[in-house]
Amino acid sequence: MNPITLEARVDDFLAQKRIAIAGVSRHNNHHPVGNLIYRRLKKKGHDVFAVNPHMQTFDGERCYPNLQAIPGGVEGVVIVTRPELVLFDEPTAGLDPLRRNAVFEMIVKYQRQFGFTAVLVTHDLPEALAASDQVALLDGGRMRFQGTPAEFNASDDPTVRAFRDSPGELRQTIAALRRGEIIQTQNDL
């Protein structure tokens, strides 16, 4: 059984006709994302319902105080908030390098634009170091390092070195194995 892709989930969501947007704002600079989503879905022919308990109308249409107030209900809801902290848990797992770069670029762009703190859990070390102001390394439930990417790269901590230097060590091990050298690898321990 194939897992459902994000693209397929978005397509399924957009197949719905009646969609509520919770988080529209009377000020485009406050919640531009909710306003933009509302307008784009409306333009594409969806029945779109603005939800904001502090507004009577949005773009000349009735604005509802909550989802229950929308007559006939809705099939889908987009909730737009302005969080102070956003957690990204392995957002690039399984992606090719170009899409992985695009995700990291998007995270940094929106983090700077909207001013939230982004907490990024990843095993993609080069990209994480490029995209982060601060990094932390957890090992066995313990924080082994916390600091800037430059401090991470300069660290002499054995766990940090093993994690940071593992691609180079892997290349050396594979080259030795290809030359027919008998060496002890981590899997032999």
Computed CA radius of gyration, to the nearest angstrom: 23 Å
Largest sheet: 5 strands, mixed
- The CATH architecture name of the largest domain reads 3-Layer(aba) Sandwich
Number of domains: 2
CATH topology of the largest domain: Rossmann fold
Q: Strands of the largest sheet, in order across it?
A: 3-4-2-1-5
The share of residues in extended strands comes to 15-25%
The helix/strand class is: alpha/beta
Instruction: Provide the CATH superfamily of the largest domain.
Output: P-loop containing nucleotide triphosphate hydrolases
Number of helices: 6
CATH C-level of the largest domain: Alpha Beta
Shape descriptor reads elongated
- Uncertain spans, ≥5 residues at pLDDT below 50? none
The helix/strand order is: HEHEEEEEHEHEEHH
If you average the pLDDT, what whole number results? Answer: 87
Verbal overview:
- The model has no long low-confidence stretch (mean pLDDT 87).
- This protein has 2 domains: 6-79, Rossmann fold (3-Layer(aba) Sandwich); 85-178, Rossmann fold (3-Layer(aba) Sandwich).
- The chain is an alpha/beta fold and 189 residues long.
- Helices cover 39% and strands 22% of the residues.
Please outline the helices and strands.
Layout: H1 6-14, E1 18-22, H2 32-43, E2 47-51, E3 57-58, E4 61-64, E5 76-79, E6 85-89, H3 97-114, E7 117-121, H4 125-131, E8 135-139, E9 142-147, H5 149-154, H6 158-178
Parallel strand pairs: 1-2, 1-5, 2-4, 6-7
Antiparallel strand pairs: 3-4, 8-9
